[in-house]
Amino acid sequence: MDKWTSQPGKNNDVVISSRLRLARNFTDYMFVPKLSEKDSHKLVDSVISKFKDEYGEHYRAIRMSDCNDITKSSMKEQRIISSHLIKNPCGAVLISPDESASVMINAEDHIRIQVLTNGMNMHACYNKANELDDFIDRNFDYAFDEKFGYKTTYPTNLGTGMRVGYTLHLPGLSSSKKLNQIANEISRFGIRVKALYGDENVDYGCLYQLSNQKTLGHTEKEIIKDLNDIVTQLVQQEREQRRYLYENNKFVSEDMAFKSYGVLRYARKMSLRDSLTLLSEFMLGVSLGILKPKDETICINQILQDIQPTVIKAHAARDISDEETDVIRADYLRHSMPELEVE
Questions:
Q1: Per-residue pLDDT tens digits for 162-183
Q2: FRET pair for 241, CA 20 to 30 Å: which of 34, 178, 192, 205?
Q3: pLDDT per residue over 151-167, tens digit each?
Q4: CA-wise closest residue to 281 among 271, 291, 272
């Protein structure tokens, strides 16, 4: 089965991916930070058993105790598991065939349901997550309070226990210096903007995560609608800013796009930071019509996953140096770049 990264996505010139997560806990167990090893294994066994009864081998079960550090880190870089699950040898994850859905067991909470889609499609994420949530709810007793909603390890997740987020490619707004102002404005609505790669001082690839910070006092549908409204406005502003920059710096934009494509197509060694920067410029060139690939199917989410350092090392299945990682990354990118139409 094809991975979720190869599926078509709405507004994918700006919206790279959608992600929805649900935090849940069971009444019969202590919260994860205080859960004994014996009960941890019991909880994992019971959840995996129920999934096997319902779905057969449809969901692949992986126990953290069976994984080495590289395997666990590569799953995190592919956005399958969280950093909390990596640290818990008594945890596990159930993964759908297309890897769009994962159910983390004993991560931050007893259950973390996560669903990813290509482009802007949070409703599809919600429908799939809700299906899994209902199944688990039928088989286990969720910790729920009529006033505060779902009881979670962290108080910030009380209420719906739902976090929704979009990964956006915003080279136009980022280069115009408008992004900080926008981030400050939408923070008033409980929406956080964070660079996907880099830190507070510098970001790589103009990729940003927008996610809700409030889960209490709002329904799931209200949270999704509020975020969708903001993202829809951002998509429009980003497209307008891209067009403005291109019309006022046509030769600079074209030169940047073709240079980036050329380096991606022919370089023999590539760091992650340089790769993300060049991919951002390449994607911008495609969205503006400067670069016209013969094959319009460019699985950018798959590329972003496959160029991560630990993912490369996991695929190599042997101990490789950082320099060799950069060489393998460059080779992968060369073969991922499409042929262009020549005018």
A1: 999 999 999 999 988 888 899 9
A2: 192
A3: 999 888 999 999 999 99
A4: 291
